[in-house]
Amino acid sequence: VTPGEWLGQQRILALRERSVRDAEGVAVVEGGRFAMRALQSGAAVLGAVVARELLGKSFGARLSSRLALERVPVRRVGAAEYRVLSLAAEPQGILLIVRQRWTPLPEGVSRRRDLWVGVERVHAPGNLGTVLRTLVAAGARGLVCIGPDADPYDSRCVRGTMGAIFDLELVRTTHAELSSWCRRSRVFVVGSSAHALRDYRSVSYRRPALLMLGCERGGLSEAQHELCDKVVKIPIRGPVDSLNVAVAAGVWLYEVVAQRHPPARSARRIP
Amino acid sequence: VTPGEWLGQQRILALRERSVRDAEGVAVVEGGRFAMRALQSGAAVLGAVVARELLGKSFGARLSSRLALERVPVRRVGAAEYRVLSLAAEPQGILLIVRQRWTPLPEGVSRRRDLWVGVERVHAPGNLGTVLRTLVAAGARGLVCIGPDADPYDSRCVRGTMGAIFDLELVRTTHAELSSWCRRSRVFVVGSSAHALRDYRSVSYRRPALLMLGCERGGLSEAQHELCDKVVKIPIRGPVDSLNVAVAAGVWLYEVVAQRHPPARSARRIP
Fold first, then answer.
1. Closest CA–CA distance from residue A128 to any residue of chain B (Å)
2. By mean pLDDT, which of A58-72, A87-101, A152-166, B230-244 is the weakest?
3. Taking CB atoms and an 8 Å limit, are A240 and B136 in contact across chains?
4. Would you state the pLDDT for residue A4?
5. Does the CB of B238 have a partner CB in chain A at under 8 Å?
6. Which run of H or of E encompasses B76?
7. In chain B, what residues touch A137 (CB-CB under 8 Å)?
8. Can you list the alpha helix ranges (DSSP code H) found in B153-266?
9. Cβ–Cβ below 8 Å for B251 and A246
10. How many beta-carbon pairs below 8 A join chains A and B?
11. B12 band by pLDDT with thresholds 50, 70 and 90
């Protein structure tokens, strides 16, 4: 396969289908910031499509030299063709084909500060992307996808991560495998549910933990629920049913950060 | 104006323009859940467009009787025409025209537990909507829009609120007016910025407070900055620049909730 075919229009458009992406084990990453983050974090970049007219001048030059340095096959196109390939509202003139990177559940005892989020299904890919961005911001280790549904390499998810997808371990596993791993590795599994009685702040996260997130509509599945050592709720103090799933994940992840890394000395006001 | 004209296709499509919405002081609310929430929370509903084929049977009947009860002018259309009017991915067959509701800054001393968010500009209307949903969940009082830019009645914002927009006080003000109100009412104004040194958890929010949010790209404006008594940051522990603005607002608002409403007894682990 020459770079021309590998990076041809038909093929890149075909990669919008999850089945095609998964069969090839690749994903499309679009935009200058994302491309730079992919390169910096050591993602396996298989090829690039670049429209120089759309790239900012100095940034485009930096990216180009970086692509050359890494010997990435580049196909140059005009702005019009780039716009056909792009899903962005304001196409920036660069997209990369990267290899999907999946890691197995780490063997042996989990590190003391390990923090994971587990999902089975998240309805809106953009929400999942925002969760991943927050995971990285919170210093978490990775995302555990239980079963086949969640797709972190959906382009809308990748966009929502703001590039953070390259800084996480992504795991695909089954309920059974996860259950046995959590027991073996002594990972504390906490679910969140609107129906729980326990406040999310009243458990201790100062141990390896996996926060189990349900989907926007139905919450935790029964199988997810069974994996949890505890189930907690984020209190709702007004006439809404729930928080947005990415906001809920953020509030919860930052409670873990707050417990593990309190601000300097006695500066934090204790209620 | 007869309901036919008032609810005609041209007019409703014209309301997609902010200038038209603002000139008439109205907004469009779409979807069964949103319509019901608007009716329940006492919004001034000026008219409705209903496509019975698209509405679920029992829910449609409940909504219809509620609309009749409130003497709301209703225009019935077929599914095809409704789809022309709708901005929803899965049109549910009901949209309402509601009156925009704005309130002045409350006079006199602020209530002890008052909590506001202040914005000047939020780039993505969906993000602003998610902030409003979280505001209601956190039991906050309202949103203060400083200057003309932020538009909570943008349809993408309204959608992001999941109906919560009707449960908040919405204020439009200027920097000068807000500054004098905050001093007079002893409202503690805290900004958030990636460049701040102080951790967001190390200030006390157990007093009337306004959390000042910057925009996704540039953060706080200089004028916003000047309004702040303190500026704090949410710590970032991994290789991302920032949190999504709605996630940041959620983490911050729930720190306020945590300080004001600690979970029962000593259940909360103190670091």
1. 12
2. A58-72
3. yes
4. 62
5. yes
6. strand B74-76
7. 236-238, 240, 242-243
8. 155-161, 175-185, 222-227, 245-260
9. no
10. 158
11. very high
Whole-angstrom distance, CA of residue A250 vs CA of residue B247: 6
The Cα of B204 is separated from the nearest Cα of chain A by a number of Å equal to 6
Helix (H) or strand (E) holding A48: strand A45-50
* DSSP at A147: S
The answer to whether ipTM exceeds 0.95 is no
pLDDT at A220: 96
pLDDT, one tens digit per residue, over B27-57 is 999 998 899 999 999 999 999 999 999 988 8
Angle among Cα B113, B116, B119 to the nearest 5 degrees reads 170
Facing residues of B48 across strands? B74, B96
The stretch A223-235 carries a mean pLDDT of 97
Interface check for A262 against chain B (CB to CB < 8 A): the answer is yes
Residues 6+ apart with CB under 8 A from A218: none
Of the candidates A63, A79, A76, A214, the one whose C-alpha atom is nearest the C-alpha of residue A149 is A214
DSSP string, B171-200: EEE-HHHHHHHHHHHT-EEEEE-TT--EEG
**pLDDT for residue B270:** 46
Per-residue pLDDT for A1 more than 60? no
Closest CA to B225 of B183, B190, B180: B190
Output the CA–CA distances (angstroms, integers) from residue B98 to B7, B21, B27, in the order listed.
12, 10, 5
Look at residue B3 in the predicted model and tell me its pLDDT.
61
- A194: closest CA among A156, A232, A224? A232
* CA distance from start to end of chain A: 64
pLDDT for the residue A196? 95
State pLDDT tens for residues A159-214: 999 999 999 999 999 999 999 999 999 999 999 999 999 999 999 999 999 999 99
Vertex A153, ends A150 and A159: CA angle to 5°? 110
Question: Hey, are the CB atoms on A263 and B130 less than 8 Å from each other?
Answer: no
HSE of B160, CA atoms in CB hemisphere, 13 A = 23
Contact yes or no for B239 and A41 at CB 8 A: yes
